[in-house]
Specification:
heterodimer; A: alpha+beta; four-stranded mixed sheet; 7 helices; B: about 525 residues; alpha/beta; five-stranded mixed sheet; globular
């Protein structure tokens, strides 16, 4: 970890440590800023919150939103839960993974809350609904 | 001349935006209109919906904007929105403001009856509030249907310096979006409901636990809380963001997550009402439960609520029509409506125009219902009696191309992916469930299984030495489902058997038989 990152991590921890149940807010911010919560981060966070590293690692590994390794590829989340399946998302998946190749990370999520207008996807904080093959391909290629 | 400008209303709901509402709004502004971003009416097949003087057009694309301004575009016009049959058939209490107000306007909220419930609650005092919530017959809208008033009374009677109100906004069920729409479209009503709950049970802190998949709802709630902080003081509310774990919609797992732990389910008792967040007495209620409270606490609201619905299912239920349905969206009505009415009369059948094959009610853990069962009334007890559940009121329609065997497999797969790992029936049962469903559905075999190397070893005295037939595998799946249903700690493992067994019962042909 660079000096900058160490300082930043300390700032994030300091900003949240007074809150009730500070671990998840800290992890969210670390994940958003560093792209992952790696071993060094776990050790530093554990020290601030007076937890063991195992406890922090247990939490990091439990939740889908936290990753231990940084993935620099752009991420496209595609919902493959029941309602989107009923609207045909499975038929688009092959075209999606072809369009993505090794360049884009396709992440399966279960429900974006757009269940009446699926299939739907999310890129960053942007949601897109009523996807067909062409629209999904375009979304992936532009990500 | 801004005085002459046409005022057009476009929803800023996440679903409308995902369908292109921002682009339509931008085109309207460019064409010289005044644009108001309001909540969504809940007619999702018409989004983005543009409203001018009460009349609606949808779905609108930016290139149709000019025609609408000139009063044309008749092919996508629906006339007066309030008179649309989809809206007219509803009885909206929780969603009374849907489509009508700007979500973050404190003035609009107040002008439409907002804060009246809270003010009255503060006048009549906690004991009377508790009594009215009990009297209303309101049951938890999260799925279990536990009477809200009883839960509140328990917390009010519990000893503790600190008490909490926790709002469960971890709406992970596929086919449900009412919580999201409420948080995005009417966030103040949720905060008001929580403040009333806090007043009633003696809690001064509240948390709203929102799933991370809802960025718009998170942002709007935070803005709303900032805007009304002084009004609800001394009650304090804070938004906490989930981290992608479905199981955190289970209340004890949610509490662990709020505490900064793994979202593992806790054994009950102790109930969260006695020992909840940080070991303190805690009310955990769903978004829709808390948002129904301001209405109930308004003058005469409790009696009105109690007068709606059937048997022990009182009041209205925001039902979510989703999946392969022509007219999908939010439909709030009193309990007692049948699936036939919902799917065909209101929903207009499938979006694909094909036959309806199955309907899943209540999210990923709800049973698949066959069209033969469509006359069952929407009621907690009637569904429970049919081995089904209302859950959070989500209805997902499938047409005749759906492979119900694959859906049964997915139910097990989902449970395996999302299990918190605390109890064995769920953690291991779901994995074994996927394997058994795969063997039953395996092509080119009779669906059975040969004993493996270890099982045939002479020292494995109790292991079966004969091959299992397809019928044996089905029996095994039924046994496994029984074990999961009665042996799991929470609804994830406990209810996964519902979609699996209902699919197997009604559509055995989809399991390769």
């Amino acid at each position: 970890m660079s000096m900058n990152q160490t300082t930043r991590l300390a700032e994030i921890c300091a900003a949240h440590r007074h809150r009730e149940g500070p671990l998840l807010p800290i992890l969210h911010e670390v994940q958003a800023e560093f792209g992952c919560v790696d071993t060094e981060c776990e050790i530093a966070i554990a020290a601030v919150l007076n937890l063991s590293r195992a406890e922090v690692h247990g939490v990091v590994s439990f939740y889908h939103d936290f990753t231990s390794q940084r993935d620099t590829r752009p991420e496209v989340q595609i919902c493959r839960a029941e309602a989107c399946k009923a609207r045909g998302v499975e038929a688009l998946m092959e075209a999606a993974s072809q369009a993505a190749g090794d360049r884009v990370f396709i992440k399966t999520v279960y429900c974006l809350g757009l269940c009446s207008v699926g299939p739907s996807a999310r890129v960053g904080d942007r949601l897109v609904a009523r996807l067909d093959e062409a629209k999904l391909k375009q979304l992936i290629e532009n990500s | 001349m801004s005085g002459d400008a046409i005022t057009a209303r476009v929803s800023d709901d996440a679903l409308a935006r995902a369908c292109g509402a921002d682009e339509v709004a931008a085109a309207l502004v460019k064409a010289g209109c005044q644009v108001e971003r309001v909540s969504s009416w809940g007619m999702h097949w018409l989004e983005p919906l543009v409203e001018v003087d009460g009349k609606g057009w949808g779905p609108v694309t930016p290139d149709r904007v000019q025609e609408i301004i000139e009063g044309g575009a008749g092919d996508i016009g629906i006339g007066l929105i309030a008179d649309h049959p989809f809206i007219k058939r509803q009885q909206r209490l929780t969603f009374a403001r849907a489509g009508k107000t700007c979500p973050l306007s404190v003035e609009a909220y107040e002008a439409t009856g907002g804060w009246a419930g809270m003010r009255r609650a503060r006048v009549i005092g906690p004991a009377q509030v508790l009594q009215e919530v009990v009297q209303s017959g309101l049951r938890g809208r999260g799925g279990a249907g536990f009477p809200a008033g009883i839960k509140w009374q328990t917390v009010a009677g519990a000893q503790g310096e600190q008490k909490y109100i926790v709002c469960n906004a971890d709406e992970g069920d596929s086919g449900t979006f009412a919580d999201r729409m409420l948080m995005e479209g009417d966030p103040f009503s949720l905060v008001e409901g929580m403040a009333i709950a806090g007043h009633a049970v003696g809690a001064n802190r509240g948390y709203i636990y929102v799933r991370s998949e809802y960025p718009d709802a998170i942002r709007k709630l935070q803005d709303a809380i900032r805007a009304c902080g002084a009004l609800v003081a001394p009650f304090e509310v804070e938004v906490r963001v989930g981290a992608g774990a479905y199981v955190c919609g289970e209340e004890t797992s949610l509490l662990n997550s709020l505490e900064g732990k793994r979202g593992e389910v806790r054994a009950k008792p102790p109930l969260p009402a006695i020992e909840g967040l940080f070991g303190c007495p805690t009310v955990v209620n769903n978004v829709l439960t808390l948002a129904a409270i301001p209405h109930i606490l308004a003058e005469g609201g409790a009696a009105l609520y109690d007068g709606l619905g059937i048997d022990r299912s009182k009041g209205t239920m925001p039902i979510q029509l989703a999946g392969n349905i022509k007219h999908g969206g939010l439909f709030e009505c009193a309990f007692g409506i049948t699936l036939r009415e919902l799917v065909y009369d209101v929903g207009g059948g499938t979006a694909s125009g094909r036959l309806v094959k199955a309907v899943q009610v209540g999210g990923p853990l709800g049973a698949y219902l066959h069209p033969d069962q469509f006359d069952m009334p929407f009621d907690y007890e009637a569904y429970a009696a049919a081995n089904a559940l209302i859950g959070h009121g989500g209805i997902v329609v499938f047409d005749d191309t759906a492979d119900m065997g694959a859906m049964a497999r997915f139910a097990m797969e989902f449970c395996a992916a999302e299990s918190c790992g605390k109890c064995t029936p769920c953690r291991i049962g779901a994995v074994r469930g996927v394997e058994i469903v795969d063997r039953i559905r395996a092509k080119g075999t009779d669906g059975g299984r040969q004993p493996d190397r270890i099982e045939i070893a002479p020292q494995m005295h109790n292991a079966p030495k004969d091959a299992r037939s397809r019928a044996d595998e089905i029996q095994l799946l039924e046994d496994l489902c029984e074990t999961m249903k009665f042996g799991s700690l929470c609804a994830l493992g406990g209810f996964t058997p519902y979609p699996v067994m209902s699919a197997l019962k009604h559509w055995p042909e989809d399991f390769g038989g």
